[in-house]
Amino acid sequence: MTTNKVFQLSALSQNDAGAADGSQLFCKVTKITNGNLRAGSFSINEMIALPIPPGQNGSAPTPTWFLVPDDNILDTSFNLEISCPSDSNYPITTITVKASDVQKWATIPYNERDNQIYQQGQYGIFGFAQDGPNGLIYTVTAGVLNPQLQG
Question: Average pLDDT per run of 10 along the chain, which is 151 residues long?
Answer without folding.
Answer: 76 82 89 96 95 69 94 96 91 95 90 80 88 94 78 42
